[in-house]
What we know:
Elements (H helix, E strand, L loop, with lengths): L2 H30 L18 E4 L3 E2 L8 H16 L3 E3 L5 E17 L5 E16 L4 E14 L4 H24 L4
Parallel strand pairs: 1-3, 1-4, 2-4
Antiparallel strand pairs: 4-5, 5-6
Helix pairs in contact: 2-3
Amino acid sequence: MSIISQLSRGIRPLLRSWAFLLPALFTIVLAACSVSYKFTGTNLNYDLIKTLQIDPIANRAPYGWAPMQAMFNNRLQDQYVNQTRLRLVKRNGDMHISGEITGYDQFNKSISADGFSSQVQLRLTVNIRFENKKTNQRWERQFSATAPYNANLQLSQVQERLVTELIRDICDQIFNATVADW
């Protein structure tokens, strides 16, 4: 009898016994491990922080689009209402967000072979002041987002879609900077 056949006969019973032990071992390992997920992505102590004050974000950009200010304010408030358990208040919130839209501009992103612009970039910039009165955290930052569009199109043709994208991006940035654990 060859060595390989003798080894395989000795290993088979061992493999059969491990086949019964593996699920039990797997269960023990899973029970010993603790995994915690926060689906909102927030890092808030709701026992400490209960309210949020968001002042209207005014449009102070030299050039602007009239609906942009209302779109931004609605999206920012909705984001906190939908993704946290914080209660919005008009004044004296545990956390306070204020600021203004400071820039809304477009510039050439790329030039085609004929020397004309082939793609234009639209940029939105917002200055935000944040204060967490419970943790004494305070900062001021600028957030911006850009979106390209085809230079053959007029801004008025793509403005609503692009501004919606820019606002969503900036509100995500603000949310992550204020309450998310990133």
